[in-house]
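Sanity check

After download, print the first record. It should look like this:
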Amino acid sequence: MVTLLDNRSLIKVSGEDSETFLQSQFSNNIENIQHKEIQINAYCQHQGKVIAVLWVFVKKESYYLSVPNTLKQIVLSKLNMFKLMSKVNIEDFSGKLNQYGLINESNNQSFKINDNLSLLISKELITGVEHNYYWEMACINENLPEVYSSNSEKFIPQALNLDINQIGVSFTKGCYPGQEVVARMHYLGKPKRRLFRFTSQFEVSIGDNLNVQDSKSLKSSGQIIRVAKNDTEFQFLGVFEVAHTNENIFLNNDQTKLVYLIHE
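Expected structure tokens:
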């Protein structure tokens, strides 16, 4: 299945210092990007909170960053602020190439995200593609996190499961913004919140809260970060307190609206 990802923007980073520069900015090891593969990265602020989750790939010796539309300007601003004297060119490439999500499709021109999902970049508009709802559902089924402007700078990478199998965080690379906080949690702590998949019969939205009765947290027990709806229910990803996964979970503290964690 081919879906048009018209909710995503594209940033091109080129120049002789581009690898070194991006290595100093992102959470994953840029040197390890493989041919025709997407590397997931967190772009963090100094407290280790994730500004954006980026899909990074290499094409013709340039780096491309796929990011939600709502975060494009923030990412561009941060990159330009930190480039200083680095020999890099940073361009908004959103209007020059189209992005398509492939679900269980084989294409020699696409960039692999995982075994089931890949990203196709094309100058041409492909006709007959499906709505990106199918992409959202596929990403939720794959536990692939996303951050938007509404929840930017709210979660550390561990809360988005980006540290698991180092899918989006390298603990052996050099420094990047927020690296000390992220590494301290990895080596000395244990995340109190993780990313889980849920289902609900009630309408849910990104940013909605998840609550349990016995939580001692001053905030909600969790927050919804990604949503898709099929014919009968909503499925979504939420960052949620690990200690309360076996309790009744309510939407926005309304005890008439139960949601259900999908146990893997």
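If your output differs, re-run the checksum step. Summary of this record's structure: The first strand starts at residue 2 and ends at 4.
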